[in-house]
Amino acid sequence: MTKKVCIIESDHLYDKMFLSVGWTLVTSPEEADLICFTGGEDVTPALYGHQNIASNCNWLRDVREKEIYDAYVGKIPFVGVCRGGQFLNVMNGGLMFQHVDNHGIGGMHEMVNDLDQVIHVTSTHHQMMRPSGKGEIIGEAGSRATQFIAWDHPKSPMSDTEVVWYEETQSLCFQPHPEYRGAEETKKAFFDYIDRYIDFEKFGKVAA
Known about the structure:
By secondary structure, the protein is of the alpha/beta class.
């Protein structure tokens, strides 16, 4: 049975990506097997209790997307791309580094997934997820960043977080951009994570 996705703040690249692997696009979350939050502005730091020291935000978008998250958490699984992944991380109690260097490069870099496979992924983000205790880091990019800016001045992490999984809410936070043209390896990794982690049957959705 074909899976259905509702893409929040979509564009033709996201549409094309999901259609290319056999998904059906729907406009209402009620119809969806999966809700996808997309890339864009930084998440407003106030949502995770921090002051804005290096973020370019869209508060109205944050409010709209939080309303969607709150309405469907526990009912429909979520996936987020770049800002969307960072948003889901925050909704699950995570924090953010408001700026890191050596990532917003517009090119590719290596990432190691949870199976110890090396994958080449896109890198356009300048912020980085700091998962809460409920999150599992399932994709890392080694130690590319040397500068970590955050309001609460935490210790620098041992490696750079790229993908985080929140089992309780079935939220997959994917920081690279799988929808970009020429990012086939990133796209394959994205859908592989969806297939291996999201339990559609938990919510009475189609079998994965």
